[in-house]
């Protein structure tokens, strides 16, 4: 695909997906209903009963819209964090969970659900422990001398394992009748708890981090050549790496705050993106944000539509992602050379 | 060096002791048939029992918590006031084969219960893995079997017989039986069309619920069978996710809410305002102290929960003073005397 056509095409596809998803839901709405509602709301055209107007407003603006926006934010965040990590660690198999952010955030969420009464406290705990887990990995890497990347990976392994076992402790002491099912459900991921307020609180830092990583994507190209070359280009490798890790952690931790654990997106989307656009991170980062957003909207549509009950989105992403990944694995090398 | 005479004396004493211990024991034991149809020899004087499953523990809380050798799940500090002092210092032992914390067998042995009270949802559901553990304990155990709330009167009678507390359990079983019949009677007189539809809102978002045939919503079955979520429950755990749009389609007349976080925001939430129950102010928070009245855990408290629910659904047809009824229930089942003020706090937190 030609470079100058790629972004307009992706943006068009995203708009199309959003528009199409607005029409999807368990509650049957005709396209004419939706069009009528927006015409009435924005231009005051046509007429509508008050009850009907309220119902449509709730369905479209309070239920479907926040979910779609959340899916965009989460999909883009996980994809960008994944792409940045893959470039930074020069390894196509790492994902945003590499440094333990998802394990830490899950532990924080479970801890909050067992010990705190308010949902805001749960969200704060989720966010803080996501960061704490990454700090632990970075701290472990800092303690030793040697290959920084390798030490970071090892630190991440240790930190993830630590917070995963702490999560098990929480699950064990949780009330098996009430808290445990709620924790289990949350860890499977889902967009049902998203509302306008949290969307703003989490969305603004997420969008800002995505934008900043796009700005720094040139440095990622240098980092992916290895530390020596990057230093030779006059880049302060350590500093840039820490900044990028910070941004990736911020956006990933916020995805857990918004919707619990959603795996596989941050691993697969960067691969697909590189297959489409090649290895240049200046293109990969923004393109993966768009593709991740489109992908997660579609996955959430499947979650919402398939049955009377909602399928947790974490399950859907893995079930769609794993076979897909197995198929493209052969081609996945392409984007690296 | 022992001489022969001394050995003889010691042997004689030993034999005498053995005979007296075992002989007495054998003479002072009785055989009962438990609810799973097993013949069990139980000691005649039972001082301490242990119930290694939450359901069994709850039933014991209502019969006589001071007989318990230990707790199965920790009791919240704020709920301790509903228990006799004896319960406060009991060790936390845990469960065998099932949910929550796994029992430490050695702690259990140290607590020396004379009898274990097992619980099963049906004869066929008796858990082999737990059986293996139980056999190692050398402690007699009996099964109480309750497939539904309707079996509670029988469970009370059976346990009363085993624990020699028939006078106490007779009160509990007749109260339970009376309540079940009373509600059946009230509900049967109300035509199906006049029964309000109910949505059971679980989770902080209120978007988890149960299929109508799940044990978790047994009270809804008994109080008119109008759960909006009609499906076959696939697992005991339940807690099925539904979407807001689905709830809007169901548009229930009444919502029974499990979480205070949800209850506090539901009336202000513009989306939930689309639901008939919310618009008409018919959202009710389930009382939960010391145990939930409705579900999670589904315990004996549901006998009172059934009255509460029926009163909510059919205020005109089932006129009761719920505060008075609840105080009476707490007096009878938990042995605590609560003021009207205290009860209001439980009912309307």
Automatic annotation (TrEMBL), chain A:
Species this chain originates from: Syntrophus aciditrophicus (strain SB)
SUPFAM superfamilies linked: ABC transporter involved in vitamin B12 uptake, BtuC
CDD domains: TM_ABC_iron-siderophores_like
PANTHER family: FERRIC ENTEROBACTIN TRANSPORT SYSTEM PERMEASE PROTEIN, MOLYBDATE IMPORT SYSTEM PERMEASE PROTEIN MOLB
Compartment(s) where it occurs, according to its Swiss-Prot or TrEMBL record: Cell membrane
Gene Ontology CC: plasma membrane
Keywords carried by this UniProt record: Cell membrane, Membrane, Transmembrane, Transmembrane helix, Transport
GO molecular function per UniProt: transmembrane transporter activity
Protein name: Iron(III) dicitrate transport system permease protein
Membrane topology, as annotated: Multi-pass membrane protein
Signal peptide residues on this chain, from the entry's feature table: none
Pfam family name, one: FecCD
Main location: membrane
Keyword Cell wall biogenesis/degradation: no
Keyword Membrane: yes
Any one of the GO BP annotations: siderophore-iron import into cell
Sequence intervals crossing the membrane: 31-48, 68-90, 123-143, 149-170, 198-219, 239-269, 281-299, 311-329
Protein family: Belongs to the binding-protein-dependent transport system permease family. FecCD subfamily.
InterPro entries tied to this protein: ABC_BtuC-like, ABC_transptr_permease_BtuC
